[in-house]
Design goal:
Blueprint: E1 8-13, H1 17-28, E2 33-36, E3 48-51, E4 54-57, E5 63-64, H2 68-73, H3 76-79, E6 81-83, E7 87-92, E8 95-100, H4 120-135, H5 138-143, H6 149-155, H7 160-175, H8 184-196, E9 199-202, H9 208-215, E10 222-223, E11 228-232, E12 235-238, E13 243-251, H10 255-261, E14 270-280, E15 290-293, E16 300-303, H11 304-307, E17 317-324, H12 331-343, E18 351-363, E19 376-378, E20 381-383, H13 393-411
Parallel strand pairs: 1-2, 1-13, 2-10, 7-15, 13-20
Antiparallel strand pairs: 3-4, 5-9, 6-9, 7-8, 11-12, 12-13, 14-17, 14-18, 16-17, 19-20
Helix pairs in contact: 1-9, 1-13
Length: 413
């Protein structure tokens, strides 16, 4: 990294979403800032790789157009977003059903008629829940009683059958909590974002989002391949040797590096998720739709190349299937067998392109869950990341913004 002759105002350690947002807000208010990133690219776990002509995101990830922080910081047009279908397909022991938003795709909502995917009681509960989460001021959702998502769904009037058939398999993939133990406040905010926004993928992969954030910073702000060994009284010490002085340091890394740099930091447990990327000669589903399994043999699956054609070379289809926890030598075979059933396709000839296990995919967010936590953890020490908020893209960006606000206040700006 370039030499620093005089002390910077702020060093941000980590060039993920939170760190990049924090740096941008600080720079806009005048302090001198540098971002130190361990790896060879920005994004943290929100990255995309090119492998044999395929685009492989580091775990299945989507971009929601409703996130206020994302809309404020990134041009959605520049991301060249391509949408998923407004709904989800649910594989059950009674066949495949489509759960669609009738306000967006009324012709595809026939499976929401009573007696198919849901009964009259569940449809009424769904309408009331969705109307409240869509239209109520967000402060109402944030201040509501916090309990588990399962308890909140039962209180809202949903039958156990509908919860098990739809909500549990779908939300397990969204919240990475198989027992619906996530904070109900977090659930309501997530449900609201889905009702208000569209799930998409950037044409160049999910890694395009942090790349756009980094491109908005002044040249030379981000220093790649610059791992930090420890924090010092005057700044940080680099793993390669040498100290970089700064008046304040913001730790914006993943949970492991963050607790290594700040051993007393209170860090929640994280969920582990594994995504299997298979290549098929033909798409097993001819639409850009998420597919869930009521037997929960996996979290969700989709044909990525049906969403973004450029995710796979011509003549090939790329299928991503995610599951909770890490990989083992027998798991992929079980997933492949389940995919043959839910897609009604021959999967024995599919090629396993790669497997991506993300050990810090999402923080556990059991109730009572604070929706935002203070960034200042000591004199001249700040921390941000999805573990300080709601675990989403919106949460990571908002956490970075909060760290910048608190730091600017302490600097007297």
């Amino acid at each position: 990294m370039p030499e620093t002759r005089s002390a910077l105002d702020v060093l941000v350690v980590g060039a993920g979403l939170a760190g990049l947002a924090c740096a941008r807000d600080l720079i806009d208010s005048g302090p001198t800032v540098r971002v130190l990133e361990t790896s060879d690219a920005v994004g943290g776990r929100m990255r995309s790789d090119r492998l044999d002509g395929f685009t492989v995101d580091r775990g299945f990830q989507v971009f929601n157009t409703s996130y206020p922080q994302a809309r404020r910081r990134v041009s959605l047009r520049d991301l060249r977003l391509l949408p998923f279908t407004a709904g989800v397909l649910v594989h059950t022991d009674r066949g495949r059903f489509r759960f669609s938003d009738p306000t967006r795709a009324p012709r595809r909502a026939s499976d929401l008629l009573p007696g198919r995917l849901a009964g009259p009681r569940d449809l009424l509960a769904l309408g009331m829940l969705s109307a409240r989460d869509l239209l109520a001021p967000v402060r109402i959702l944030k201040r509501g009683e916090d309990r588990t998502t399962r308890t909140a769904l039962a209180s809202a009037g949903f039958s156990e059958e509908f919860v098990e058939r739809f909500f549990r398999p779908f939300l397990s993939g969204v919240l990475l909590a198989d027992e619906l133990e996530t904070s109900s406040r977090v659930f309501h905010l997530v449900w609201r974002s889905m009702l208000r926004g569209t799930l998409c993928l950037p044409a160049d992969g999910i890694g395009a989002v942090p790349r756009r954030l980094a491109a908005a910073l002044p040249s030379g702000t981000v220093c790649l391949e610059s791992p930090v060994d420890r924090l010092t009284d005057d700044g940080v010490e680099l793993t390669a040797g040498g100290e970089v002085p700064a008046r304040a340091v913001v730790v914006a890394t993943g949970p492991g590096p963050a607790t290594a740099l700040l051993p007393k930091l209170d860090m929640p447990a994280y969920r582990i998720a594994t995504t299997y990327y298979h290549v098929a000669p033909r798409p097993p589903l001819g639409e850009p739709t998420l597919l869930t399994d009521s037997r929960r043999r996996f979290l969700n699956t989709c044909v990525l190349s049906a969403v973004v054609r450029g995710y796979a070379p011509a003549g090939s289809s790329l299928i991503a299937t995610s599951a909770l926890r890490g990989d083992d030598e027998h798991r992929e075979a079980g997933v492949r067998e389940a995919l043959a059933e839910v897609y009604d396709a021959e999967t024995a000839g599919w090629e396993l392109l790669t497997t991506r296990t993300v050990p810090d995919a999402l923080p556990a967010m059991a109730p009572p869950q604070p929706l935002s936590r203070p960034a200042r953890v000591g004199p001249g020490r700040y921390v941000c990341g999805d573990h300080r908020a709601t675990g989403s893209v919106q949460g990571a960006l908002a956490s970075g913004a909060r760290a910048a606000r608190e730091l600017l206040r302490d600097l007297g700006r």
